[in-house]
UniProtKB/TrEMBL annotation:
<dbReference type="Pfam" id="PF03036">
    <property type="entry name" value="Perilipin"/>
</dbReference>
<dbReference type="InterPro" id="IPR004279">
    <property type="entry name" value="Perilipin"/>
</dbReference>
<keyword id="KW-0551">Lipid droplet</keyword>
<comment type="similarity">
    <text>Belongs to the perilipin family.</text>
</comment>
<dbReference type="GO" id="GO:0005829">
    <property type="term" value="C:cytosol"/>
</dbReference>
<dbReference type="GO" id="GO:0005811">
    <property type="term" value="C:lipid droplet"/>
</dbReference>
<protein>
    <submittedName>
        <fullName>PLIN3 protein</fullName>
    </submittedName>
</protein>
<dbReference type="GO" id="GO:0010890">
    <property type="term" value="P:positive regulation of triglyceride storage"/>
</dbReference>
<dbReference type="GO" id="GO:0019915">
    <property type="term" value="P:lipid storage"/>
</dbReference>
Length: 154
């Protein structure tokens, strides 16, 4: 039996998240090795380099979230408007975070509201609400595909 669409979405989302985590982990390892070789010891790198890497990671993560959320927004047409509104609000928040991290040269350039975790917690809450809704109310078109009239040959 084919997996329900919500399970496919969860698996895809989790796979993207794992790929992103692996990529960020590899970037961190590469940077750590480079830093150790340059300094000749096991001490950590310069704070500015660490800050730069952290900002690069934040930009990458928020960009991936933005792409994923755009796909979700386009896929949920026809669902209740309150859910669509929450997903669109999540996308706006992700876009704001990505813009803030992209414009920042250091953490001092970021407002305290960008650095709080509450925004991401709200986005996660909205996405879980969407998935809970879909688990119990899978749209018919997701199960059987779009309906289109057959063309009869003459």
């Amino acid at each position: 039996l084919p997996l329900p669409q919500t399970e496919v979405f969860k698996q895809g989302f989790n796979q993207k998240l794992q790929e992103g985590q692996k990529k960020l982990h590899q970037m961190w390892l590469d940077w750590s090795r480079k830093s150790s070789k340059e300094s000749g010891d096991e001490t950590s790198g310069e704070p500015e380099e660490m800050e730069s890497l952290a900002l690069l990671m934040a930009r990458s993560i928020t960009q991936q979230l933005q792409v994923t959320c755009c796909k979700i927004v386009s896929a949920i047409q026809g669902l209740p408007s309150n859910l669509q509104g929450k997903v669109k609000q999540s996308l706006n928040t992700i876009e704001e975070l990505h813009a803030a991290f992209s414009a920042a040269n250091s953490f001092q350039d970021l407002s305290s509201s960008v650095l709080t975790q509450r925004k991401l917690a709200v986005i996660q809450e909205y996405m879980e609400e969407l998935l809970d809704y879909l688990k119990n109310n899978i749209p018919l078109s997701w199960l059987v595909g779009p309906f289109s009239p057959r063309v009869e040959e003459v």
